[in-house]
Amino acid sequence: MEENIEHCEKGSRYIREGINVLHLQGSYYEMGYQHGVLLKEQIKKGAFKYFADKLEDLIEKSFLARLPNFFSDLSLQYLDKVIISRLVKGLPNECLEEIRGLADGAELDFNATQKAFVFPDVTSYLIGKINRRHKVLNLPLRLRIPTLGCSSFVALGEATASGKLIHGRNMDFYGIGFWDPYHTVIYYQPDKGLSYVSISSAGVATAGLTSMNEKGITVDLHQNYSSDISLEQTPIMALGNKIAQEADSLEKALAIIKQNPPNAGWTFLISDGQKGDVVVVELSAHKMQIRKPRKGFIYAANSYMTDELHETELELNRGITINSLSRHKRLGELVELNFGKIDEDIAAQIMGDHLDLNVRRERAIGDIIVQLLNLSSTILSPEEKKFWVAKGRAPVCNSKFVGFHLEDDFKKIKNPKSLEGNEFNKTGKFHSLAEIIKSESFYQKGNLQGALTHLEKAIKHDLEEPILYHLKGTIHLKMRAFEDALRCFDQALSFPQHNYKMGLEYLWKGRTYDLLNNRERAIDEYKKILKLSCLSKPLLRLAEKGIKRPYLDKNLDFINLEFFLGEELDLK
Questions:
Q1: What angle do CA 458, 462, 466 make, to 5 degrees?
Q2: Is the Cα dihedral 361, 365, 367, 369 positive or negative?
Q3: Residues 462, 538: one domain?
Q4: How far apart are CA 297 and CA 384, in angstroms?
Q5: Three-class DSSP category at 268
Q6: I need a labelling partner for 530 at 20 to 30 A (CA). Which of 65, 91, 144, 222 fits?
Q7: Can you give the pTM of this predicted structure?
Q8: Which of 423, 452, 471 is the last residue of a domain?
Q9: For residue 206, which of 239, 171, 168 has the smallest C-alpha distance?
Q10: pLDDT in tens, 4-55
């Protein structure tokens, strides 16, 4: 295979079933440089570009873009000089050296590379800063601040077929078309510290998202939304790096976190494959709580489960909260259902699960473990030093998982067999996912007709998915096709949904009747919302507002449609 291996200094790269495999060796600068040279072209087209450009997009594609340029420029300056510069100061030398090496190797601007590295911290800090005085406030959503999803579990002891620890992990985030074409497995062999492997994408030089080190410590990261924030502590990607580089036990990992607290709300799931133990660490800038496994398993999504951290938790939108809690509950159910049988194959099945607990049926999109934004999915068996990485496009967890070994040496060690993943990828509903992603892309470009065309194609694959009819109805509204919108909302209501989603359909039916000058029918729809349970206070307030006065046509231009959750995030 030597002819397929590219070299840069002590670093090497080959491709295995469409996945980049990097072997980096030396100082952190040297490893960053090798990474940059070996994946230069992919880095310039991939996730690095997305994260580097996204900060300006937060201003340019939000309501701030409608304000005079002075205010937009001022906002960008505030992001750059007040937030980003202070976060960058928290980066340890090892991170800065790796980032500098990456920038030099890929011929990138060093400052832009630093900004991309702290991008997750910027978004989490902004969410906490904006919401600090109000527990429910939609301004972060009006700014379209990206939020990280993620679902993970660890099973061990009697919960697994072999008694060995199994770690399943889905990473969900914005960046479709930038991250998923360039999946990358990075083997780090630093001059100082432990060797480790990071499951990442071209140009994303961190072990902070998903990783495993030579001592069998696995790490994965989840975003939370907390009012407890800072700009003076450790950027989250750097903290994940430090755990992978230095932790030879759970105790050492916890000590590292205590000494290097993050700037905002996060959760780590950390396991020790050699000792067969695991913890979930819930964090904010000044708080830290640990959850331990129950009956041989533990799991996490994007909601705090400890009382102390929950006190700081922010609800950006009721739909986001329902989604996270639904994924969390379903993970627990699946692990219990498979108790004593869990192996890598079943773990892959779990990470590709599509059952919505709220309606007890399989769905392509909704409050399910498989999120449309799933960019990376990994199964880890640290005791055996094996791991499996899903290949292909988002949602990648429904794809084949390619097997790797922690001690990979250019295929001299036999890699584990591949995993086929969840069989949902063989159903007709699965084919709707690609059309939804295409529709969202057209929508973001302002091409409503293109978005509508691909939604109609998605519906042909999945005739009973209410979210598709809701999205279609909302686009008809923006196109002022009110009768068509009504029909879509009625179709959405004909299928089972969570009460919150039903309330949204009634809200938009009421608003559509207002736009058709049928005030009596509009009020009837608003009143239906007040009879439902499990609703959010903002939705109830909007229903009461709708009863008092009609919805106006001018408000349609401000609809902030979020395809990946299937609703308007900024209800007003």
A1: 95
A2: positive
A3: yes
A4: 18
A5: strand
A6: 144
A7: 0.94
A8: 423
A9: 239
A10: 899 999 999 999 999 999 999 999 999 999 999 999 999 999 998 888 777 6
